[in-house]
Amino acid sequence: MIISGKTDIGRRRKENQDTWRAGRKGNAFAWAVVCDGMGGQRAGRLASCTAISSVEQQFSHTDLVTAENPGILLQHIVEKANEEVFHRAVEGGADTFGMGTTIAAVVLRNRDAFYAHVGDSRVYLFRKNTLVQLTRDHSRVQEMVESGQITEQQARFHPERNRITRALGVHQQVQVDVGSIPVEPGDEFLLCSDGLSGPLSSQEIAEILAHYPIYQQARSLVEEANQQGGPDNITAVVMQIAQEEKDG
Fold it and tell me: Whole domain around residue 15: which residue ranges?
């Protein structure tokens, strides 16, 4: 199991409100999380850091290695993070009112991957040179694409592309989308904020994953997003199932 990550402020923002964290226990278990804060400079950073800290603390006190249903447990972890961001927002008064954050999380355990997300940060699977988006954006433009109002290409440049319809911390409760998929040796999972998936097409992301080794992929993705203008904070985290783990 190999994990590589990179975050960058981009070329147009004054502060990086993206946050990421990852961990592992041997070759049998690993996790990674990406959050993209919103709600003003100070509040957006606070929201993403609060969510990340909550998730990391829960992972350190939860036995996901032997959990009967890691997907449900991951959902509860994200829901708890939502509660903590919400309470921080309420306690902060006018300075933090309405703050929130997206979240994309992946847990890899033996031969299965479990993922959860809220907002427009994404989880991709890269398998045999093919990139598949596992998550569905909770955004206004995604709803427009699904209703046939605009195409996916038009969504990338639509003026409402940053308008999300669901986020952690905005309400006391949140609906978390979860899923799972069997893994294969050589699989890679990419978690990213919209600062990456906005400027780069799926084809561009796939080409970088295909042509760079795991240790260079996150950095190369971020660099390419900056080359495309870097309009937002950029975060990429890549988790790879090593080929030699096929029988373990």
Answer: 2-247
